[in-house]
């Protein structure tokens, strides 16, 4: 165990992380011995550390398993990943509300008397980018953080009273984030229930037609059309500024995402005029994740349906675009897609498969009423997602400020 110096030295004293903490290394007992596994002691591995506060782990050890190949860290410990490819881009940090065992890719860091446990966990999160810059590679190419580098990382914490204030502020934000996430999840489940209610009611109601999509669009001014082939649209046709081209990867949560959308010149877009989209169209991914689809809005008027997509224009007096996306995303539609998709290595959708999709088609007024109800839920969820993004941004900024020595000194000097 590392020996600590007593007493907290002043700012700029040159003290390091190792002056404030002790370290524990974990391990993995034999997977072949059933006596070691399925116990009641949480066993943390990097794959569990997707969250800051862990409530469960994938695997649990018995006391015999701990004795044979791991260690148990106290409830006060912070867990950090020190080996694994995740360190190429992320520095996972977690705490657990109970003592826990952990594997060899994780270090348990236990704070000494000069640190509040929660402060230490937040401190690691705030310095994640700094630790990622220390990541190296083993002889086999695996990413790793060496303990000697961690031990000498500079640390100059404030008084315990100030640590407590910092922890209170960040815990309050975490509580608000957690509450907002719960609200978003409530809206997600509510939406699933509403879609199921409307689609299944329409499917089971006497008097409403059940028609294939092909029957609905053919002869009524609609169409099902494949996006341009690779021979029509090449990689060198894309430009930095121009007409957006919607690809499967741009379809997210029923909308078109602009973050990494490709573009072509206006002259190229004119040459592909038959693939121009109008409000009320629906664009579908025809390869890969076949759940992806989006209704085209006024924002996307004149954009192009790209390679890898199918474009559907519905007769609005019979079938609304919103209703089509609801049925397609429902299990009723996805069962049809999964049963008929072609391709041995990647699932593919074509116009024939999509055209054979059978849909319940209630009166257009009923379709619109269902869409209106679900849109209201979507709007509330979008409001909460924006709130969540602001809370995350605020927390990130506060962690940088509150855990920065220079900022704390400035605040302290002004008080």
Please describe what this structure looks like.
The chain is of the alpha+beta class and 415 residues long. It is 38% helix and 20% strand. Strand 18 and strand 19 (293-295) form a beta hairpin. Helix 5 packs antiparallel against helix 11.
Task: State the end-to-end distance.
Answer: 39 Å
Count of runs of 4 or more consecutive helical residues: 12
Oligomer: single chain
Helix percentage range? 25-40%
Structure keywords:
alpha+beta, 5-stranded mixed beta sheet, 20% strand, single chain, disordered N terminus, 415 residues
Gist of the model:
This protein is an alpha+beta fold and 415 residues long. It is built from twelve helices and 22 strands. Helix 5 (160-204) packs antiparallel against helix 11 (364-402).
Topology of helices and strands:
Elements: E1 21-25, E2 37-44, E3 53-54, E4 59-61, H1 63-69, E5 72-73, E6 78-81, E7 93-96, E8 100-102, E9 106-111, H2 117-126, H3 128-132, E10 136-137, E11 143-144, H4 147-151, H5 160-204, E12 209-212, H6 213-217, E13 223-226, E14 238-246, E15 251-252, E16 255-256, E17 262-264, H7 266-271, E18 282-285, E19 293-295, E20 304-305, E21 309-313, H8 321-329, H9 331-340, H10 351-355, E22 358-361, H11 364-402, H12 405-414
Parallel strand pairs: 2-8, 3-7, 14-20
Antiparallel strand pairs: 1-9, 2-4, 5-8, 6-7, 6-9, 10-11, 12-22, 13-21, 14-17, 15-16, 18-19, 18-21
Helix pairs in contact: 5-11
């Amino acid at each position: 165990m590392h020996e600590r110096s007593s007493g907290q030295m002043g700012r700029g004293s040159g003290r390091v992380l190792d002056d404030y903490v002790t370290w524990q290394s974990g391990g993995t007992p034999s997977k072949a011995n059933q006596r070691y596994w399925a116990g009641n002691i949480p066993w943390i591995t990097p794959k569990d550390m997707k969250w800051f506060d862990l409530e469960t782990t994938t695997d649990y050890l018995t006391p015999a398993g701990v004795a044979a190949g791991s260690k148990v860290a106290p409830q006060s410990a912070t867990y950090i990943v020190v080996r694994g490819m995740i360190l190429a881009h992320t520095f996972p940090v977690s705490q657990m509300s109970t003592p826990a065992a952990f594997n060899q890719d994780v270090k348990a860091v236990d704070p000494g008397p000069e640190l509040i446990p929660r402060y230490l966990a937040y401190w690691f999160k705030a310095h994640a980018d700094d630790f990622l810059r220390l990541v190296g590679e083993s002889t086999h190419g695996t990413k790793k953080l060496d303990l000697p580098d961690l031990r000498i990382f500079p640390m100059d914490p404030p008084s315990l009273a100030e640590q407590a204030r910092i922890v209170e502020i960040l815990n309050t934000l975490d509580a608000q984030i957690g509450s907002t996430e719960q609200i978003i999840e409530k809206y997600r489940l509510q939406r699933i229930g509403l879609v199921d209610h409307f689609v299944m009611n329409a499917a089971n109601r006497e008097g409403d037609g059940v028609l294939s999509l092909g029957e609905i669009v053919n002869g009524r001014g609609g169409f099902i059309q494949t996006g341009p082939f690779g021979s029509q649209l090449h990689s060198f046709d894309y430009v930095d500024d121009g007409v957006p081209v919607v690809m499967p990867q741009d379809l997210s949560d029923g909308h078109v995402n602009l973050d990494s959308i490709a573009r072509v010149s206006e002259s190229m877009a004119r040459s592909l005029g038959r693939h121009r989209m109008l409000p009320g169209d629906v664009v579908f991914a025809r390869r890969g994740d076949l759940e992806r689809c989006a209704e085209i809005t006024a924002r996307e008027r004149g954009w192009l349906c790209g390679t890898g997509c199918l474009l559907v224009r519905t007769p609005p007096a019979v079938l609304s675009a919103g209703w089509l996306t609801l049925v397609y995303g429902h299990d009723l539609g996805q069962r049809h897609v999964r049963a008929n998709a072609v391709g041995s290595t990647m699932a593919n959708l074509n116009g024939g498969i999509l055209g054979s999709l059978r849909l319940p088609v209630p009166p257009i007024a009923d379709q619109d009423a269902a869409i209106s109800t679900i849109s209201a839920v979507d709007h509330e969820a979008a409001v909460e997602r924006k709130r969540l993004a602001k809370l995350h941004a605020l927390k990130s900024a506060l962690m940088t400020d509150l855990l920065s020595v220079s900022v704390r000194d400035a605040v302290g000097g002004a008080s």
